[in-house]
Amino acid sequence: MAEAPRALVVEDEPLLRQALRDHLAELWPELHVEEAPDGLEAARAIAEHMPDVLFLDIQVPGLNGLEIARLVSGRAHVVFVTAFQEHAIAAFEQGAVDFVVKPIEGGRLAVTVARLRQRMTSVPADLESLLRDLANSSGKGHIRWVQATVGNRIRIVPVEEVHYFQADAKYTKVVTDRGEVHIRRSIKELVDGLDSEAFWQVHRGTIVNASRIDSIQRDGDRMDLRLVGRPEKLAVSQPFQPRFRSR
User: Residue 1: which pLDDT band, with cuts at 50, 70 and 90?
Assistant: First the structure.
């Protein structure tokens, strides 16, 4: 008997990872599925047991998804699982097996599985051209929404709804009109990914939505922001104060 095909799911959100595993168990029962919560674990799993298929989130901690895809280019079939549809379209057009856009839908994944089954006997695509294009264009797009796990739900928050982001232990607190959620993205990742014209870093651990700023209060060397409809004050540390003094 032929050996059962092996898959590796690389996704840092536990609920998304489990949802993908559950769908695959129904759609492709003979597929042996392993998982990795970050890029470093994925690299170890690839080195130990080269999978036949990778279900790969482009935005994962450790080694990013592009670096992981480079490890298996031409050796394993790759399915990009991403919240950024522009990545998915580019991947599909340039030879990656397929893509699945978050949140994952069973019907869309069924189409992907059918395509994978057809391609399992063919040589996996060489992804070098695609990976170069994605790497070169990765700074052109901006984060348009963030996702947070709330109980047994995954909440999608458009960034336009955000008042501010603030570092909170290992997470980042996201404050919106509809309450607060916590996400795994760091302040640095958000600074790199958000539109810098719309979101201003005001402290090492704080980014504010510029359209939500109501007033600025100065007291000697201290500067605080008030946001529209919010009771709290947000400190502006000295490295970021020149932005407000020049306005």
Answer: very low
Q: Are 131 and 149 in contact (CB under 8 A)?
A: no
Tokens for 123, please give them: 């040589």
Residue 133's φ and ψ, nearest 5 degrees, are -65, -45
Q: Distance of CA 205 to CAs 108, 176, 200, 211, Å?
A: 38, 17, 11, 19
Distance CA 242, CA 202 (A): 10
Tens of pLDDT, residues 75-85:
999 998 876 55
pLDDT digits (tens, 9 = 90+) for 188-242: 889 988 989 999 999 999 999 999 999 999 988 899 999 999 999 999 999 999 9
- How far apart CA 31 and CA 196 sit, in angstroms, is 44
CA distance 47 to 49: 6
Q: What is the tens place of the pLDDT at every residue in 89-101?
A: 555 555 555 777 7
- What are the respective helix, strand and coil percentages of the chain, to the nearest 5? 35, 30, 35
**Closest to 113 (Cα-Cα) out of 41, 189, 55, 179:** 55
Tokens 């796990």 belong to 149
What does the alpha-carbon distance between residue 195 and residue 14 come to, in Å, rounded to a whole number?
A: 28
